[in-house]
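Page 37, continued from 36.
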């Protein structure tokens, strides 16, 4: 064994204090957003811990104006064409109100109808504005530009070959949130030709 000296005791005290204040080391293969304790789905399409995000929509407004006209999660085509594109979440929305809408947030769950596995994602669509009376399309496709947002391609949406059910909630400041349900047929993710 070793002889306890004043220097050894001081070193052990420093190590104990330092150890108590050190940040926990994240498990290996944890995404940067998970390491930071983030609870919003990032634009990282390869998040290795998908589907762990809580619904942070707290909007309780009852004012009408935000409508989800349609939702597509498979067989997507490029706007204005019949050209196939890779599967992604596509929402066509409309502002039937008399003012521009801002403060958009989206929360959605994906459920594998065979295994029962469920994933959930929260997206803060910071900076997105929908003009009064306008109709627009939101694409969660890892694209760039207005109306394009990140999508995790490492979750069951792209990994499962079973039928998937989506429940989508979209919120804008001072307007009642809108919801829509849509399903993706069995077969797995489709890629553009």
């Amino acid at each position: 064994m070793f002889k306890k000296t004043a220097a050894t005791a001081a070193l052990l005290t420093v190590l104990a204090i330092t150890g108590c204040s050190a940040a926990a080391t994240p498990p290996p293969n944890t995404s940067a957003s998970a390491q930071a304790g983030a609870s919003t789905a990032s634009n990282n399409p390869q998040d290795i811990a998908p589907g762990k995000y809580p619904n942070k929509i707290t909007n309780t407004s009852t004012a009408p104006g935000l409508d989800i006209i349609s939702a597509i999660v498979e067989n997507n085509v490029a706007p204005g064409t019949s050209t196939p594109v890779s599967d992604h979440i596509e929402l066509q929305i409309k502002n039937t109100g008399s003012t521009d809408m801002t403060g958009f947030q989206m929360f959605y769950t994906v459920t594998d109808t065979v295994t029962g596995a469920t994933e959930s994602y929260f997206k803060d669509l910071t900076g997105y504005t929908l003009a009064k009376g306008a109709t627009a399309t939101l694409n969660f496709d890892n694209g760039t530009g207005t109306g394009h947002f990140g999508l995790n391609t490492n979750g069951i949406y792209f990994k499962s070959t079973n039928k998937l059910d989506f429940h989508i909630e979209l919120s804008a400041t001072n307007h009642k949130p809108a919801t829509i349900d849509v399903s993706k047929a069995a077969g797995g993710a489709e890629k553009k030709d």
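The beta strands are 66-72, 89-95, 105-112, 118-124, 135-140, 148-149, 164-172, 175-184. Flag for discussion at group meeting. The mean pLDDT is 79.
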